[in-house]
């Protein structure tokens, strides 16, 4: 967002070092994943919702790849999620293949759709993209509704029985296999995504996001990069959808409905864009809030979640984080210099007060 | 980057503590928990409100102890989404150890839970969803609402008996709607009439283009099915298009003149003929007492969804009395064949299909004490679900 001043004069050595530094795993990240791993044993009776969180987290990571890194806004990301879900469901229903093959199939079909529709997304700016992505998702939802012979229409895809993973791990009623499976897939794909965004490719995406014209001027093949990342994100979303289909052993039209696209955007708004963890954190916060509020007040939880979202946006999440970071640094002065919130990109004079 | 990873960590920590906090719960053996999974928000929220109010009323009237067990209701919002419903049911079964899951406003939601009911041997009482095939999805499903073919067939017979020759059907495009369309078309054409079919999407229904086509087709009657809660919108567009003055008679299953919404539809609804298993002005002592108590407790009129919930609680209570508090398969077996006088009239649970057998009434919208009501004027006794009855023969 800020320093784009000397981009044409950087030495390759500096670039390599910067990228390597950015690619290094930090303690909080490792702790985050350890906590996720520990939850398998520590929260044995919450695996079902944790499974859902892992899936939505992966879905949000997928959206973050295009929104946070390439600046493509989308209101129709559920198109890929839904396609992946139906692909995985149909593969299981008709061929009874291993779930991992279903994942690959879902990734492939979703990537194919992503590749085709990416050409539409290249045209126009934000508003056009919103409309185009929304349109693609709506068309796909209607196709799924009409093709009842294939998808089961509004009643959902019946008779999906998922074989055991690798022929060994049966899906159980407690959701343990499901959660471990989803968490593992999410982790692997996350590591790959993390590797990609700190590569020169990822850097070029950010350049495109910040200023497409200048990116083109310094020789970045803008269209090719956008097509690549859109296709990749579609594949990710497809895998997330496949995970949902496989772990719930049921696919219905909601997988492709508008509220999926909206929810995942909401998750990213809560967690923050452009650092991959935003999707995961947002998913954790969003699902837990929803589950907690809906169990207290089944009728009115939407009101409370709306209120919390407004407060979150008004209070400015970045500022809250900056304060948290400042507190962390005050307690444990690390080597990363520059105490105080002036370090963050949102270093407005207003930050840090009250 | 750093501060954000920190945020991630903080959130993970918070998550862990809040999750751990919710897992603590006593599981005393003397409690029989019923997981009531209902659409409490969104387009079908009225269904959820009705059933929740009715279930609570039943418990208030009959006490919360049955066969020595304390009955506890756990209400969950399914948000109208199938995978959420399935997860909630799974959590209720695994974590809360519920003895029965109940509710289910829409067909896909009921179907998504069916494999779980079978796997965990937990009775699933369907209090609302009305596609005929639902009870075939699991041997643990019992239904206390109705099926669309059950309500539709008498309507088609009545229409042809009353001189109608050409009818257009307009149904919502999902399981129950298609059931209604098929049943109506089959019955009505067999009796010598002609039928034209139209379907409206379930999400965001806009009836006006279809109503225009209906006006152009000039049938004797328009047969309508919309899910509970959508009737008011349909009636408004029906009036806006002037169809109420076109001489085309409006007929349908009772979903469209849902008691919950009927009074708000205005005089345009007067004279609409529908067939259904329950009306709030059903003439019986049981019903009068029920309606009065329901209005007092909930503040609104009960509709057929509420009655489905009320009778759903009844089969669970009576079943538990028979099994002496034992749940699972024994409870389902105890419910099979159960017969009683419901507020809707005499009903029984078919021991073969676990579906409800009940009277279907032909009703006409009239003003009763200044309020619009479905006044019953003909009764077709002991109607079985025709789809499953046809399969059995």
UniProtKB/TrEMBL annotation, chain B:
<keyword id="KW-0029">Amino-acid transport</keyword>
<keyword id="KW-0732">Signal</keyword>
<dbReference type="InterPro" id="IPR006311">
    <property type="entry name" value="TAT_signal"/>
</dbReference>
<dbReference type="InterPro" id="IPR051010">
    <property type="entry name" value="BCAA_transport"/>
</dbReference>
<protein>
    <submittedName>
        <fullName>ABC transporter substrate-binding protein</fullName>
    </submittedName>
</protein>
<comment type="similarity">
    <text>Belongs to the leucine-binding protein family.</text>
</comment>
<dbReference type="Pfam" id="PF13458">
    <property type="entry name" value="Peripla_BP_6"/>
</dbReference>
<dbReference type="InterPro" id="IPR028081">
    <property type="entry name" value="Leu-bd"/>
</dbReference>
<dbReference type="GO" id="GO:0006865">
    <property type="term" value="P:amino acid transport"/>
</dbReference>
<keyword id="KW-0813">Transport</keyword>
<feature type="signal peptide">
    <location>
        <begin position="1"/>
        <end position="20"/>
    </location>
</feature>
<feature type="domain" description="Leucine-binding protein">
    <location>
        <begin position="33"/>
        <end position="366"/>
    </location>
</feature>
<dbReference type="InterPro" id="IPR028082">
    <property type="entry name" value="Peripla_BP_I"/>
</dbReference>
